[in-house]
From TrEMBL:
<feature type="signal peptide">
    <location>
        <begin position="1"/>
        <end position="21"/>
    </location>
</feature>
<comment type="similarity">
    <text>Belongs to the PagL family.</text>
</comment>
<dbReference type="Pfam" id="PF09411">
    <property type="entry name" value="PagL"/>
</dbReference>
<dbReference type="InterPro" id="IPR011250">
    <property type="entry name" value="OMP/PagP_B-barrel"/>
</dbReference>
<keyword id="KW-0378">Hydrolase</keyword>
<dbReference type="InterPro" id="IPR018550">
    <property type="entry name" value="Lipid-A_deacylase-rel"/>
</dbReference>
<protein>
    <recommendedName>
        <fullName>Lipid A deacylase</fullName>
        <ecNumber>3.1.1.77</ecNumber>
    </recommendedName>
</protein>
<comment type="function">
    <text>Has lipid A 3-O-deacylase activity. Hydrolyzes the ester bond at the 3 position of lipid A, a bioactive component of lipopolysaccharide (LPS), thereby releasing the primary fatty acyl moiety.</text>
</comment>
<dbReference type="GO" id="GO:0050528">
    <property type="term" value="F:acyloxyacyl hydrolase activity"/>
</dbReference>
<keyword id="KW-0732">Signal</keyword>
<keyword id="KW-0472">Membrane</keyword>
<feature type="site" description="Critical for activity">
    <location>
        <position position="160"/>
    </location>
</feature>
<comment type="subunit">
    <text>Homodimer.</text>
</comment>
<dbReference type="GO" id="GO:0009279">
    <property type="term" value="C:cell outer membrane"/>
</dbReference>
<keyword id="KW-0998">Cell outer membrane</keyword>
Length: 181
Protein backbone atom coordinates (compact mmCIF):
# COMPACT_ATOMS: atom_id res chain seq x y z
CA UNK A 1 0.00 0.00 0.00
CA UNK A 2 2.75 2.46 0.97
CA UNK A 3 4.83 1.51 -2.09
CA UNK A 4 1.81 2.23 -4.32
CA UNK A 5 1.52 5.71 -2.80
CA UNK A 6 5.24 6.32 -3.40
CA UNK A 7 4.90 5.32 -7.06
CA UNK A 8 1.84 7.58 -7.44
CA UNK A 9 3.81 10.49 -5.93
CA UNK A 10 6.69 9.92 -8.36
CA UNK A 11 4.27 9.84 -11.32
CA UNK A 12 2.64 13.07 -10.08
CA UNK A 13 6.04 14.78 -9.92
CA UNK A 14 6.78 13.78 -13.50
CA UNK A 15 3.35 14.96 -14.66
CA UNK A 16 3.81 18.34 -12.93
CA UNK A 17 6.88 19.05 -15.08
CA UNK A 18 4.66 20.28 -17.93
CA UNK A 19 3.19 22.98 -15.71
CA UNK A 20 6.66 24.33 -14.98
CA UNK A 21 8.21 24.23 -18.47
CA UNK A 22 10.66 27.10 -17.92
CA UNK A 23 11.04 26.97 -14.15
CA UNK A 24 11.09 23.26 -13.35
CA UNK A 25 9.98 22.13 -9.93
CA UNK A 26 12.39 19.17 -10.14
CA UNK A 27 15.25 18.43 -12.51
CA UNK A 28 15.26 14.64 -12.10
CA UNK A 29 13.44 11.73 -10.50
CA UNK A 30 15.05 8.47 -9.40
CA UNK A 31 14.49 5.06 -7.91
CA UNK A 32 17.15 3.33 -5.79
CA UNK A 33 17.31 -0.29 -4.68
CA UNK A 34 19.56 -1.11 -1.75
CA UNK A 35 20.63 -4.17 0.14
CA UNK A 36 22.26 -4.46 3.56
CA UNK A 37 22.60 -7.21 6.18
CA UNK A 38 19.19 -8.93 5.99
CA UNK A 39 17.35 -5.76 4.88
CA UNK A 40 16.22 -4.45 1.50
CA UNK A 41 15.27 -0.90 0.64
CA UNK A 42 13.48 0.84 -2.25
CA UNK A 43 13.66 4.63 -2.40
CA UNK A 44 12.00 7.19 -4.68
CA UNK A 45 13.47 10.67 -4.95
CA UNK A 46 13.18 13.98 -6.72
CA UNK A 47 16.13 16.35 -7.19
CA UNK A 48 16.64 20.05 -7.92
CA UNK A 49 20.02 20.96 -9.43
CA UNK A 50 22.15 23.77 -8.06
CA UNK A 51 23.08 26.54 -10.47
CA UNK A 52 26.54 27.02 -8.90
CA UNK A 53 29.62 25.58 -10.61
CA UNK A 54 32.85 25.47 -8.63
CA UNK A 55 36.35 24.57 -9.82
CA UNK A 56 35.28 24.68 -13.48
CA UNK A 57 38.19 23.50 -15.63
CA UNK A 58 38.81 21.26 -18.65
CA UNK A 59 35.09 20.68 -19.27
CA UNK A 60 34.30 19.58 -15.69
CA UNK A 61 33.04 21.23 -12.52
CA UNK A 62 31.79 20.61 -8.99
CA UNK A 63 28.11 21.31 -8.43
CA UNK A 64 25.26 19.39 -6.84
CA UNK A 65 21.58 19.06 -6.13
CA UNK A 66 18.98 18.96 -3.36
CA UNK A 67 17.32 15.56 -3.00
CA UNK A 68 14.00 14.80 -1.30
CA UNK A 69 13.32 11.09 -0.86
CA UNK A 70 10.94 8.50 0.53
CA UNK A 71 12.00 4.92 1.10
CA UNK A 72 10.55 1.59 2.17
CA UNK A 73 12.67 -0.92 4.13
CA UNK A 74 11.97 -4.63 4.64
CA UNK A 75 13.79 -6.20 7.57
CA UNK A 76 14.05 -10.00 7.28
CA UNK A 77 15.53 -10.76 10.73
CA UNK A 78 13.56 -8.37 12.95
CA UNK A 79 14.74 -8.38 16.58
CA UNK A 80 17.42 -10.89 15.53
CA UNK A 81 14.86 -13.67 15.01
CA UNK A 82 15.45 -15.58 11.77
CA UNK A 83 12.49 -15.27 9.39
CA UNK A 84 10.82 -12.55 11.47
CA UNK A 85 9.99 -9.67 9.09
CA UNK A 86 9.17 -6.06 9.74
CA UNK A 87 8.77 -2.95 7.61
CA UNK A 88 9.60 0.70 8.07
CA UNK A 89 9.76 3.77 5.88
CA UNK A 90 11.98 6.81 5.83
CA UNK A 91 11.75 10.32 4.46
CA UNK A 92 14.92 12.25 3.81
CA UNK A 93 16.46 15.46 2.58
CA UNK A 94 20.06 15.49 1.33
CA UNK A 95 22.35 18.07 -0.26
CA UNK A 96 24.57 16.17 -2.70
CA UNK A 97 27.85 17.38 -4.24
CA UNK A 98 28.57 16.05 -7.73
CA UNK A 99 31.74 16.26 -9.84
CA UNK A 100 30.57 16.07 -13.46
CA UNK A 101 31.12 17.21 -17.04
CA UNK A 102 29.93 20.70 -17.95
CA UNK A 103 27.17 19.25 -20.17
CA UNK A 104 26.04 17.01 -17.25
CA UNK A 105 26.50 13.87 -19.38
CA UNK A 106 28.89 11.00 -18.92
CA UNK A 107 30.72 9.83 -15.82
CA UNK A 108 30.14 11.52 -12.44
CA UNK A 109 31.23 11.12 -8.81
CA UNK A 110 29.09 12.29 -5.89
CA UNK A 111 28.78 12.44 -2.14
CA UNK A 112 26.20 13.77 0.28
CA UNK A 113 25.15 13.93 3.91
CA UNK A 114 21.48 14.39 4.74
CA UNK A 115 18.83 13.84 7.37
CA UNK A 116 16.28 11.03 7.50
CA UNK A 117 13.27 10.25 9.67
CA UNK A 118 12.47 6.58 10.21
CA UNK A 119 8.88 5.50 10.89
CA UNK A 120 10.05 3.20 13.71
CA UNK A 121 13.26 2.14 15.37
CA UNK A 122 15.48 -0.13 13.31
CA UNK A 123 16.13 -3.50 15.01
CA UNK A 124 17.29 -6.10 12.52
CA UNK A 125 19.85 -8.90 12.64
CA UNK A 126 22.45 -7.59 15.14
CA UNK A 127 22.01 -3.95 14.08
CA UNK A 128 20.13 -1.42 16.21
CA UNK A 129 19.34 2.26 15.72
CA UNK A 130 17.97 3.84 18.88
CA UNK A 131 16.45 6.97 17.33
CA UNK A 132 13.97 7.80 14.57
CA UNK A 133 16.25 10.61 13.38
CA UNK A 134 19.23 9.41 11.32
CA UNK A 135 21.96 10.91 9.20
CA UNK A 136 22.32 9.32 5.80
CA UNK A 137 25.64 9.83 4.04
CA UNK A 138 26.71 8.33 0.74
CA UNK A 139 29.39 8.22 -1.93
CA UNK A 140 28.60 7.18 -5.47
CA UNK A 141 29.60 6.90 -9.09
CA UNK A 142 27.44 6.80 -12.17
CA UNK A 143 26.86 7.68 -15.78
CA UNK A 144 24.33 10.00 -17.45
CA UNK A 145 23.53 8.94 -21.01
CA UNK A 146 22.77 11.28 -23.93
CA UNK A 147 19.07 10.33 -23.70
CA UNK A 148 18.96 11.79 -20.11
CA UNK A 149 18.80 8.43 -18.36
CA UNK A 150 21.23 7.81 -15.52
CA UNK A 151 22.51 4.65 -13.89
CA UNK A 152 24.63 4.70 -10.75
CA UNK A 153 25.86 2.87 -7.71
CA UNK A 154 26.50 4.07 -4.19
CA UNK A 155 27.37 3.07 -0.67
CA UNK A 156 25.08 4.62 1.93
CA UNK A 157 25.47 4.65 5.71
CA UNK A 158 22.70 5.45 8.21
CA UNK A 159 23.60 6.45 11.76
CA UNK A 160 22.44 8.89 14.44
CA UNK A 161 25.97 10.26 14.79
CA UNK A 162 26.47 8.55 18.15
CA UNK A 163 24.23 10.84 20.19
CA UNK A 164 22.25 7.86 21.56
CA UNK A 165 23.18 4.20 22.02
CA UNK A 166 22.86 1.62 20.57
CA UNK A 167 24.01 2.99 17.24
CA UNK A 168 25.52 0.20 15.17
CA UNK A 169 24.66 1.95 11.90
CA UNK A 170 23.38 0.35 8.70
CA UNK A 171 25.35 0.20 5.42
CA UNK A 172 23.56 -0.25 2.10
CA UNK A 173 24.94 -1.07 -1.35
CA UNK A 174 22.57 0.63 -3.81
CA UNK A 175 21.88 0.88 -7.52
CA UNK A 176 20.12 3.93 -8.91
CA UNK A 177 18.16 4.67 -12.08
CA UNK A 178 17.17 8.26 -12.78
CA UNK A 179 15.72 10.41 -15.52
CA UNK A 180 16.75 14.05 -16.05
CA UNK A 181 14.26 16.53 -17.51
Amino acid sequence: MFATKLIAAAVALVAMQGAYADDKLVDSVAIDYGNAAKVQMVRFSAAKDWSARWFQSNGTHLSGYWEASAGFWKESQYQNISGNTAHLWDVGFTPVFRFENDNKKGLYYEGGIGVHRLSKLYDNDTYRLSTHFQFGDHIGIGYVFDNNWEIGGKIQHFSNGGYKKPNTGVNFLEVKAAYHF
